[in-house]
Predict the structure of ABC transporter ATP-binding protein.
Amino acid sequence: MDRSPLLKVDHLEVTYKQKQQRKVIIQDVSFKLYPGEMVAMTGKSGAGKSVIAHALVGLLDKGLSVTKGQILFEGKNIIQFNEKQFENLRRENIAMMIQHSLNGLDPIRLVKKQMLETIRHRKVGSKKEVEQLLLNLLTQVGFKEPEEVLDSYPFELSGGMRQRVLLAMMLSLQPKILIADEPTTALDIVNREKILELLKQLQCNLGLTILLISHDENSVNKYADRVVHMNEGGVLL
Ligand SMILES: Nc1ncnc2c1ncn2[C@@H]1O[C@H](COP(=O)(O)OP(=O)(O)OP(=O)(O)O)[C@@H](O)[C@H]1O
């Protein structure tokens, strides 16, 4: 099959540098993400999964930088992107649900306000059309009564519900790739399965390409099309 990868990570190296200190954190990592597939990146805590995810969207912590290799998005090397270009990339192409993102919602601001904030760059149409879009997004992530959710505060919602709201916000950006970094860690076992099932459903129904990051290989194995296993800063094949 002649398919080009949407994302190609090629011999990536990430180094931590501060004053006299220098430590290679990610070494020679290569993998591809093809359109419409769900790839799980697994490996134990500290293996480097989050650092890779952050490198993909230009959100590396201070002191960390890409020192070797390429990250090609639709064939274009994004390593040299400036802040503005990365911002556009995150807004238009690669959405990232960050780890512990249950905190990613302001508990005391209406869901509606926070969702509106996320889509402020999209030209949707009239107020009514925007509201309908938000309701559709909430329905897409499994809410039976989206109006109620829209008019609630995150603190009134359960952990699983908040995670689904965040997912709806990510979907509102219409990304080509969704990176979900440990989307289930803060949830109980029933909600964990529900979120993974939902991601699978979104992949199948919307053709969304997903990079699912998890330390729990067993739970993601049955959902992912492929698994990239990280081992202390490198890929274990
Ligand atoms: N800002 C930073 N400064 C220095 N070292 C860092 C920084 N962020 C991460 N590291 C180091 O990089 C390595 C990989 O960390 P990373 O958070 O990517 O692991 P992980 O596989 O995502 O694990 P976890 O699931 O626990 O988050 C670890 O050794 C960590 O100490």
